[in-house]
Amino acid sequence: MSNELSHYIKKIQQDLHAIPEPAFHEFKTAAYIEKELKSLGYTVHTGIAGTGVTATLTGKRDRPCIGVRADMDCIKHEDDGRLFYRHSCGHDAHSSIALGIARLFSEKKKEMNGSVKFIFQPAEEIMQGAKAMVHEGVLEDVDSLIGYHLRTATECPTGSMSPALMHSAGTILTGKIQGKTAHGGRPHLGVNVIDVFGALINSVNAIRPNPQTGTSVKFTSFAAGGGSFNVIPGSASFAIDVRSRDNEELKRVLENIDRIIHHTGSMYDAYITYQVEGGVPAPRYSKRLIQEAQFAIESVLGKGKAISPIVTPGGEDFHYYTKLTDIEAVYLGIGANVSPGLHDPSMTFDHHSLVEASLVISHLVNQLHNKQ
């Protein structure tokens, strides 16, 4: 069975890897997944949030219904001015794992003490897909939700898995400062946006986040003035990157930044505007599901193969599922020897890890079926 599953998943991954598509344009990917799921006997719904796909299989009873989420979109890269698309974050692998799990359950439908629902989500890379899927109601019949992601060997050794991947919440603020241009010899007639930005950066850097929440605040962009060195610049733009492992702390920091921006503008007689460019929340996992995931990992891979939760500054839009609903969820880290790293166009990984993940997650779904 393991060899058959390995060949099946490898072919799926190779096929999906050959048709990388960006956010909300996963048309070929969705069609491929739909065809495969229907061949396995699933009830399939397509066109959800544009290109999303869901598929449900019911065993001896409808509930509990365990959701398995996989992302589908790829990343857009640029090389010497040439744009190209590539699955450099492993979403082709994630969809392949889900289809591997789907095949396992299609062969044991009569033994299932519940149902399983696969959620193939678009647009994770632009952090909009999960929200769109929630608004489409994909979780209304789901009791628990499972997500997962390939990891590097330094985070999670090959052949092991983590029962919880602890992402950070993150958001980007982009803003503009409108002052007043003046001659360099008459600065009193202008409002120098560089002075305004200096006050702004000092005040924002004085914010003291709770050190236990892994929160960071940093300016990542600033542009002002033109080509003349004797002109007081009257307009500027800036960006601030904010990250935290705690949603409430992130909210508090953003409120502080908002107050600072308004007070600084008033103090310097400048007009400062900003907007929040999307972002993602921090995880809210079920302790019960983390324990169940740890048990499933060690049951399939062996004792000691479930490592501690992985803490990462990266973000993941999966966490909108728990922010926007009350569903209990867990998100596993898969030891896949990702090299040289995620989002690198030359990224590679250990293909056997996809088989291990399929076996572990299917085992976890069965556990949850039998304990509810």
Automatic annotation (TrEMBL):
Residues 176-263 form the Peptidase M20 dimerisation domain. One of its GO terms (molecular function) is metal ion binding. The keyword Ribosomal protein does not apply. The Mn(2+) ion enhances activity. This is Amidohydrolase. It comes from Guptibacillus hwajinpoensis. InterPro entries: Amidohydrolase, Bact_exopeptidase_dim_dom, Peptidase_M20, Peptidase_M20_dimer. Its cofactor is Mn(2+). The keyword Secreted does not apply. It holds the Pfam family M20_dimer. Keywords: Hydrolase, Manganese, Metal-binding. Mn(2+) binds at residues 89, 91, 125, 149, 343.
